[in-house]
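The record is kept unedited without comment:

——
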Amino acid sequence: MGPQPDRAAGFDVDHNSGVEKRTILITVSGSDRPGVTSSLMGALAAADVDLLDVEQVVIHNHLTLGVLVSTTGSAAAVLDAVDMPMRSRGMAVELVVDAVGNGRTLSTHAIVILGSPVSAASFQAVAAEVAGCGGNIDTIRGVADYPLTGLELMVTVDDTEAADNALRAGLVTVASRFPIDIAVERGGLGRRAKRVIVFDVDSTLIQGEVIEMLAAEAGREAEVAAVTEAAMRGELDFAESLHERVKALAGLESSVIDRVAQTIQLTPGARTTIRTLNRLGYHCGLVSGGFLQVIEPLARELDIKFVRANTLEVVDGVLTGKVIDAVIDRPGKAEALRSFAAEVGVPMEHTVAVGDGANDIDMLAAAGMGIAFNAKPALREVADTTLDHPFLDAVLFMLGVTRDEIEAADIEDGSLRRVPLDS
């Protein structure tokens, strides 16, 4: 019996004919222009090859197109078939004969890097950390160029809890060394299954703290702000601190609530974020330790149906310095998230929570993905990921939504707008 062909080197057998087949990787690159892919496929059809895999990338009008084929013919015949059509379009062609590969595999993790900018040094540190964990970067794509640069890496590491923990811990260290935010999620369908998202309001959806704005009307902003800051750091019981702060509002006319509501400024990117999530079919909610009288009009404006917050007591048009019913505190926020998810029939692992203070700890811990937004240290320690840039729409990039997708939808309904960023 004669020597057997080396099938490990990329050979296979066409069982209908008994003829050996080989694999060839064809890479075409050059300036992107209409008809390149069609012309290449026409040439391959004439060469009578079978397609095994195709991947195409365009970066700033430069096209790279890779095609893995199987053929019973010679590599020279394939090259002859594709070389002239491609070169006539200004494209370079490379062939790898008997290409060996393991085929496409499902990446274990998605990593999103956000920065303004993302330096080569910071990216190298991320790549080195992945390699240090025994991982491989499978694909890279840009997800945003505004208001931040966003890059998404699909990576594969050992599918174990230990490897997952090591990757996350290592990337936290990398993020602490550079002015970038890094989000890590498990790959697979679960990443696309998020359907409920809740936002804290004060210093998350909006800029500033409403209770301090109200206290300013009573001339007691400084003392209330000091109590708020301690509560957000987790140094005071939230419910007790709320009652103490609300006392400072006693005697104010209730019309002050409307005046303050009209001065609220949304966090940059908040409208884009909610508008896009609504388009995607997310159930959006606001869960706040603030006040319903201020938040409900904002929720109606943003088309948010679910709201949980505290209610200021008003008697004869005057604030009494008390809140009505149970306080929405740290445990109350988590319970509100669970209630909202149950109401719309979404399991907790498919929920997202975004907040900034210690009273958001339970809510972020309960969510499938907890995002700490410009947060206090107590919250950062328990969050799945942190976002330290001041743009709320960066949350979308962490969820795998790209700026191109956002703006394509905005163009359709006439809402596209890029606000100039401060240099």
Summary: The chain has 15 helices and 16 strands. The first strand starts at residue 12 and ends at 14. The radius of gyration is 28 Å. Confidence is low (pLDDT under 50) at residues 1-16.
